[in-house]
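Project standup — Tuesday

K.O.: blocked on the structure for the chain from last sprint. Re-posting the sequence here as requested.
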Amino acid sequence: MTRQRIGRPVRASSFVGRRQETAEVKRLVAAHRLVSLTGTGGVGKTRLVLHAVPRLARAFADGVHIVQLAGVRDASLVPLALIEALNIRDVSGRSPVRVLIDQLQDRESLLVLDNCEHLADACSRLVETLLAETERVRVLATSRHPLDVTAEHVLEVQPLATPTPGEPLPPKPALEYPALALFADRAAAVLPGFSLTADNQDAVAALCRRLDGLPLAIELAAVRIRALGVQQLLERLDRRHRLLADSADSASDDVLPRHRTLRAAVDWSHDLCTPEEQTVWARASVFAGSFDLGAAEEVCAGPGLDRDEMVDAVAGLVDKSLLVRDGDAVHARYRMLESIRQYGLDRLREDGGRAEAVARRRVRDWCLDFVEECERRWFGPDQPELVRRLHAESDLIRSAFEFCLNTPGELRAGLKLAGHLWFFWFATGALVEGRYWLERLLAAAPEPTVARARALWGLALMLLSQGNAVRAAPLVEEARELALRLGDEVEAAHTYFGRGGALLISGDYARARAVYEEALVRPPLEGESMSLVGFKYVELAHVLAIQGEFDRAKALCEEFRQVCLTYGEQWIHSYLLRILAFAEWAKGDQTSARVHARECLRLKRAVGDVFGTGMTLELLAAVHARDGEGRLAALLLGAAKRIWQDAHVALDRTPSHGPVRTEAEEGARALLGGGFKSAYQEGLDLTSDHAVAYALGERESAARPVLDSPLTRRETEVAELLAEGLTNQQIADRLVVALRTAEGHVERILSKLGFTSRSQVAVWTERRRAIRP
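H.V.: unblocked you, prediction finished:
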């Protein structure tokens, strides 16, 4: 688990008001293990949480992790959403809930569960279990209703304060009434120079009262100030509100006034949209989580909307605050607030659900095309970018799996989608999620198809990575027999890696060697995955090195390394480098082994290969132990052990990997004596990224990693202002610089730190403050 992290926050505009509520959230979280923020839609629960999170971060040694559940529809996916947010790479094969319990048992973390209302039962069960099974984990949840869990402390988020009708306004009303301050802030963003004056403040106060102080409703109204005066806004909104209230009263007496208010504001915003914007709003409501323009074009274009009109329609929705722009300056993404998305879904379902089914099938098609393209491009220079994109689209891909599992006739498409994701789950260690989808789809679709053959060997790879050769072996044989029966030689060739892998991790080196040598007799078939071809070289070289045929092992590695270099490939290349370093170490060539092991670590860091990193740290520890560097060897062994502990895997004890660690540990203990334990513990306390940096000589010390900063003095100053919640314009005013200069500083800060939101910068800044001498 990565320490001191904030998981997938959303980008927000400036925050207005809520000082008392922020302080109350901090107080409640400090005093209680479960705090739920409740309130009507549009009242600002998520905004309040995101504002409070940076101020809470320093109190939790193992970080604050935000889990956004708005895009999760299937209750069974809630544990998986937490696993992803916590960056857990567990390969034990246990249930996701058990994985979470064990990972969090000795952690001091805050879990923020945002938008729980549609998953209330699942969230309640999981939270109750986690709180009962851990001691120092706390939960902060947002939901329209309490979770109804024992010891839950509820803070109902109220609308922003507005003046009482007839009450004289004070000299500076924005200071006393947050609703007015919010309107003024958002209006100024679309109409530069707007401010509360003696001429408009009474109308603004009346408008905010009419909107019941609901922040979302106020924001939707404020963006219209570009075209209408405040009094015109009030008159038109008042008419809309009366019509909706009359309609609601005639239909039901149970509709709450605030719900009507928000509905009136959203209805009016819908009416003011162009037909193209309305179409995008409705069709994009099927997106789970965020999406980019390419996905929007594929899903939303069609009857009534040409692809060429998409950019203007999306930009119009952003301008009207109906779409929120996420991402950074390079990768723009969009999302809808949940109230806006539900409104869009209601519109999409007006024809009885036919349009929704079409849109969801288009999401499925887009995901399938996207994943197939990623697999085609995987053996090449784009692997780090593909990993980033696949992580970004995880909510959307999950929604496609749910659609395939719950819609008649779609199971084969679901199997195909899962089969094409093997490389992503395998390379990044997301084995819990990979197994979850593959096992469900294989159980639901037993028909003998090529898609099933691929899903079978894909599941076998997940199991082999978890050390489960007993279950993996029959699956990969079933996949091979099915592929041969269907006449698909490519899928049959893909099974060689799994067949040999089951023998290798069981210690049956002679039979594993025979399988891989058979696989390499002929050249690759057209359409065969080059990554799996590369693994045949990797594993045969591994067996040869274990058996003492070092020169042939090195020759095989060098042969396929040239292919990787030609294509700019990094993942398979890193495994070849590790086996090359292993053969050199086993032969006694310490210098070459050190060079190649370090080069391997650099590539593994680039693609996020967690388990490969652990194995290579152990190999490098063995190199250092032989060279008499006991402390560094012990530290790297501790860092690798942290990876195995977090993943609940015992690769260090398998026949093919165990001897390396054993020799490294024996050598380090002999060199250090009683000092081994402290150096080993220091390694246990390191994050994987910091251990790699230390192993590569990029840091002189393993201590206090968070003090290091890539920011300039001015950028550090801007980061401090971001942590205070200032907008770009407010930062520019504070520093007396142009707005564009401030925007440039913010973009560079996000880029240097590898972040996608201002909230992440705020948490990073708070962590530095907490440990600064």
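K.O.: great, moving the ticket to review. Residues 1-12, 247-255, 703-707 have pLDDT under 50 and may be disordered. The longest helix spans residues 354-378.
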